[in-house]
Amino acid sequence: MSALAQLFDYLDGLRQRPALSDLAGKLEQLDVARTLEELKPKLKFSDAGYQRILLREGPQYHVWAMCWKNGQRSPIHDHAASSCALRVLRGTATATRFEFAAHGHVKAVGSYELGPGSVCATQDSDLHQISNLQEGTADLVTLHVYSPPLLRMNTYSITSLIRGEDVWAEERRMVTASPENSEMMMQNMHSWVTPNRLFFVRNHFDEPTIDLASWRLRVEGCVQRSRQWTMPDLLSLPQRSVFATVECAGNGRSFLTAPMPGVQWGAGAIGHAEWTGVPLAIVLEQAGLKSETQEIVFEGADRGTEADHPQPMQFARSLTLEKALDPDTLLVHRMNGEPLRPNHGFPLRLFVPGWYGVASVKWLQKIEAIDRVFEGYYQTVKYTVKRRTGKGTCSEVVGPMAVKSEIIRPQSGAVLGLGTNRLFGVAWAGEEAVAGVDVSIDGGRTWSPAQLIGPQAKYSWNMWEYLWEVAQPGSYQILSRAISTGGRIQPIQHDVLNGGYLIHHSRPANVRVEARQHIQAERADVETLFYDMNAYAERILHMPLDVEMEFSTGEGI
Question: Where in 42-168 does DSSP place strands (E)?
Fold first, then answer.
């Protein structure tokens, strides 16, 4: 049983705000050691600031784990309309109480230390601050329960009456907490390669805990020589690195006109990284594939249930033999030169460049060669799209990524000026390189070529820009469309046969040009590109995201 099960059962049964003493009492009943061990795979620390990890939520509560590097602190804050009970799971926290001074500023009125296992509780308007002020470099982990859910915090400064301090620094934007599904916050993107800590996370089940010393990769099925591989065994083989963009098959689902079930991603379920590992073909060659082999099945260590599949199952997907033997299909153990993190599949994952993320099975523990077409849950019940044929429609497994572009600047609703306006965006094309991007400022009636920026390579995304000469004020609808080196062109509308997947149509940016201002943009330098990425981030940051996952046939990532 989960160490937090009793607490969650109590919180799920709440119908109104509980007494503060009851919240504190429930936290006191926790086994701290078991709780910390259970939460270990979810914990994350950042130099940018303390990190909040949403563990569970309900109509009457939020439960958060918070991770503090040495010297980090919260802002001075209250909890608006929520009660909060806190328990220290690791380290010693310093709690400082504040009051309002006569002139309106806040002032500290006392501090006290909360050692390992300590519990404290605060109500609504209590002004306080939590800090990690331990000796040396010790980290701090705390568990917080808020009821009702913490939707607003008032923050305060000891030097200003106008504004408080930044509330927290998050590395990714949480869409669902358990299992974690979080997307890249575009304002943190400063290069062609996405840093690991910013890279989106897509999990179907909770992360498994894996001990590297006992971990083995089993290769079996239609092979001459079944074998188990340790990590040192794999590291002794030839290594290969591939730069590639990977995207969730449902990225952008929240933009669809007709709501679709599944994780309601914004635009940030995408990233670009260097992936390093052993070519899968080498491992399969050493196993000796039998002539009857048709597909290769990959099984992860993550296990769980779905609403329409109540029996526990491992996450598994397959590849055709041709794709499995592609020299760029890798058994990856490093991402951007670093060992895989647990949320990205430590210690080993499959990586299929140019394909949607669902194909790149994480926490890989078994490879099986089979003599038939694999009919696993995640490529029959889910992760399929419809295709028209001469005999009607048929199902097709989601695989290669579609060609796609995004307009980063201007955002829809922007007011521009006469003269030269600079448009900026990104584009990618799955297994192919981006050949070009076209821009339309009249809703798709006419198109002009944009200029690509940076490296052009298969699997990888490209930045692009377009200088738009505007002579007349008025309302305009801007569209972009990417073209792959193979001639694929991004569509204007979403294909309804794709359902909640392959969302790659051109999304318009509706803008207004006014004569009262004049713009004279030039070709961009690096600083301007970063500014544009931040402008895009402001739009993404304010998008409402559905934090509940719904399940039905055909949806998923």
Answer: 51-58, 61-68, 76-77, 83-90, 93-100, 106-114, 119-123, 127-131, 140-147, 155-156
